[in-house]
User: Fold these one by one.
Assistant:
Number 1:
Amino acid sequence: MHILTAIPNCYFRNLEHPAVPPREEFQMGNRFGVSGVEQFSWKDLLDSFSCTECGRCQDLCPAHNTGKSLNPRRVVHDVKVNLLEKGGKPLIGPKGEGTSSEESLWDCTTCGACLSVCPVLIEHLPKIVKMRRHLVQEKARFPEELLNLFENMEQRSNPWGIAPSERGKWTSVLGERSFKPGETEYLFFVGCAGSFDSRAKQTTLALATTLDRAGISWGILGKDEICCGDSVRRLGNEFVFDKMARDNVAMFRERGVKKIVTACPHCFSTLKNDYRQYGVELEVVHHSELIAQLVGDGKLKAPKKAGQGKVLFHDSCYLGRHNDTYAAPRAVIEAATGASPGDFERNRENGFCCGAGGGRMWMEEQTGARINHERVKEALKQQPDTICVSCPYCMTMLEDGLKDQGAEKVRVRDIAEVMAEALNDR
Amino acid sequence: MNILVCIKQVPDMESRFKVNGTGDWYDEADLAYRMNEYDEYAVEQAVQLKEQLGNQPEITVLSIGADRVGEALKKALAMGCDKAVQVQDNDSARKDPWQIANIIAAYAGDKDFDVIFTGMQSQDRGSAQVGVTVAELLGHNCASTLVGFEYADGVVTAKRELEGGVKSVVKVPVPALVTCQLGLNVPRYPTLPNIMKAKKKELQLVPVASLLKEEAATGTEKLYPPVKSGGGIVLEGDLGDVADRLLGILKEKTTVMK
């Protein structure tokens, strides 16, 4: 069967590059998410018939590799079996052929490895998000730790639940840095991690001082900034995401924001790709791209200071696979240290998730080995001095993983920190 | 069966509070509001009781305050209450617990509520007086600080939290009023279809003047943050040295070593 359907399946692939979940219409009487096979789109169903069962997706899946319930190949297979049996079985329920378990749906980190490796371009990810939407929105059934997350997002517009008035506090050492409509060039969308997480705040400051050194005009929204909504969208809480996205888009329009820089790949991908569905075309750059460009343009003199020892670079899923950006962060490290960083065994398109994507950052990891431990062990084989990241979630996961493995002497640094440290040393 | 739930909308306790211009309450500017935590347990318990009785009881949810309390009422409706009452009062923060209880009792007086749920206290004022005063005014049986609730044959079996970790179990025949404490239940996350249905549920507006005939029994003289009385000390350096210094401080400034 797959021989017949695989070719049209490739032809009908989603043209939005990272499989951005479709929007939902919040009308009375609508169904939200997918609970039965008939609610999938025709493309979702065509996908299921195109699978050659080659197993590449399961080989690369971080959840499957660490002994969790999720197997992306099975998700697609179960959709097909369920359809062939005309929905006689529940689509979501006790694990069995034709049925995905709730546990397996919550295991997904949305890293996108399954999508990128599939030879017939099957889109596993949107199916999982659609089924999560049903569980969250129609049934309010989700791991209990998410109750707190959803409340924090709705009430305080950030996952930590810290008062919104604290958001701009990190600028206290720099002075007033508000975005001024018509004057400021770049909106620095700091993001929740960069504003509230004490470790990520160091990256924020490093980026701010690097941009200052390059003479870039930037400003922040301060207490008016709200979460981009990445986690809630991937977790299937589309209703809350939709409100956040509309509020953000309205604010960008009101303040005349055109260019945005952010140090978080989740903010980056959401603002750049997901918000397109809300009718805005923003010029969003990840800080790796902007710093690399500033070095290229000669606005930042590449310091080329060795001082980080042996450096490995860990690809963030949402910068790499979801947005095809592999060269820029490596170029920043090379400009800062004078040498291109080493790679993990699994890198770039085949990179292995840190375990925090898809809202997993806010959930307990109870089954199997920990994904961040796997990734850290992979790094330790090469005995690095520094692991470089380009994402605040990866930072947390790898630092925690190193601590758990008793390898705290290995540092984790964001690319902006590496650049700022090298610039300060000159 | 008729059920009443009384809820209050309070500021998010994560907010930074400032004293207002008249020095008798907090400044409302820049505050985000939500349903009082203890009242969420009250709503949840009311909805669980309704479900237990085959969805037959009708739940009315009541809140006193300015129009912003509509948001808290909407959440209660989305959680499963049937209709909402807003007692319109832009100056509810200046009403004392006696007046608030009288407003609720005046509303509930002729409506034959079998069970009334309130939070144990509000997160902002924390007087813990309103629920029990309403019960007194209506002549209902009352149990406060509930961490367990069962209902059968017209009797509420209430598990109450007392001081020092002690619990007591009391049986309260209806009509009864109970006040709800942390640990009673986990308030549900409203589903999207229920959020949408809530928009179509009845919201009745009642002017406060039609219910309140009582003068305040207490008034707020002054509101101010506590005076800072010394900060903490951080001891740093060699571990043995730090231990010696700590011992010295404990001996000199406290009685724990005597």
Number 2:
Amino acid sequence: MEATYIKRKKDGRIHIMSGNKGDIVLKWTIIILAILTVVAFLFFNYAGLELGSAIRETAYNLKVMFLEPTLNHFDLGEAFYQIGITLGLAFLATIIGAVIAFFLSLMTAANLAPVWVSRTVRVFVAIIRAVPTVLWVLIFAIAAGLGSEAAILGMLFHSIAYLVKAFSEAFEEVDKGIFEALRSTGANWWHIVKSGVLPSTFTYLLSWTFLRFEINFGVAVAMGAAAGAGGIGFELFMASSFYFDLREVGFITYSILIIAFLLEVISTRLKKRYFPATTTK
Amino acid sequence: MNEKTMRKHRWQSGIFLLILIVLTYLSSAITTFNFMEGMATIPEAMGWIFSNLLVSQESFEKLPKILEKLAETIFMSIAATTIAAVVSLFLGVLGSNTTKVNNFLSVFARFIASVSRNIPVVAWSLILLISFGQNSVTGFLALFAGTVGFLTRAFIESIDEASQSSVEALTATGATYFQIVGKAVIPQCLPQMISWVLFMVETNIRNATLVGILTGTGIGYTFDMYYKMLNYNVVALITLCIVITVIIVDLISNYVRKVIL
């Protein structure tokens, strides 16, 4: 009888961990990331950088920003108005995106649509997602002119891509029995969606939409600064790049921080309530 | 479900719909967004994209320069993500309920994460630009600041979720704190954490474009330059390069995620 072969190291010790594919890939992922990080620091363009003074200056700037926030170029009412614009941009992009994503995800969910339709929509969504939002906004700005239209359309694309993924996954988790029961009563596709799929996933869809709204607020601030879409982001850009007014930058940062914090608290509650077990992306 | 509750549900969803419509109307008013006009520009914009945003022969001459900037951007995002991951690992271990040292440090870690996450990347890059100037380090630090917050929250969640029972088991054998963290918590959460890190690398490559436009570094700056010069053929080439990069990174990370999880 042949003895079982035991893998040993050179000095005769037994391997305690038998490596499987997952462990090997995990190890190499970490190693490659570490190597790329080291290489990155050699490749960086350090033009005009004086680290010591830069850090000291940033520390001083942060102190001025956060300890002495004031408004110099506009008043409090204007600040609220600008925040309103940013929230409005985010809201419109989210709500229009959610409506479009709802119909697209009906075509994407594997249990509701034929395979080729679902695959086409998925590839389409992946390509849309690969273009950064700011590029979408800038590209639309050429055709539609700078302003809220370009910003909302640009943000819409990513919102749709994100929500289609989330919605179609929610639809795919709907119990098969519901479909069968409805189909046996003679319901057509639209009936199944309206009275089977929608009622059982509605709260999920709403929470996902809110989570996207939280993301879109950040995006709307960014678009204001980088693509001239207006709102508080644009004021932030003006305050820091044109007026060099650190106290105003501090005030604007605080106001963004407060709104973002509120949105985060609400979305954490929603997550705990509706997705207790799964972590969400 | 009787008739009364059904009627109540219908009433509730009616109110809800009304609130949404009012909010939509208010948002359109404040942003001067015209829905019809906006929708009408989509076909127009698409037509423009397909007729003008084409990669032409002469734009290929710019390809080496673009690829160099693209490489800088990719390196910047990877470096920012990995270093942020190391910092977040410490913050995550301190902040998680199962492995916290004491309440003060836990709240402190969560607070740092929350602030760094909720100040948008734009604000970070504009703040850092003032004193660090136009170079890769500014972009790196801006991405780093945003990533730390996000990864810490993700790590805290994975640690909380995964390791309750094994921590209990190791505590029962009398293991020290570092043994528990090193032998139970980290090995158990590592696949989940790496999955988050890969997700963040991909997100950061896209964010790096935005940060680049603001801080004048990497591919974002190149894009902005040609965009302002109205040289749309090169703009198309740059967009194409970014799309291909993001899709490749996405495919790699999907593969790794499938194997390790």
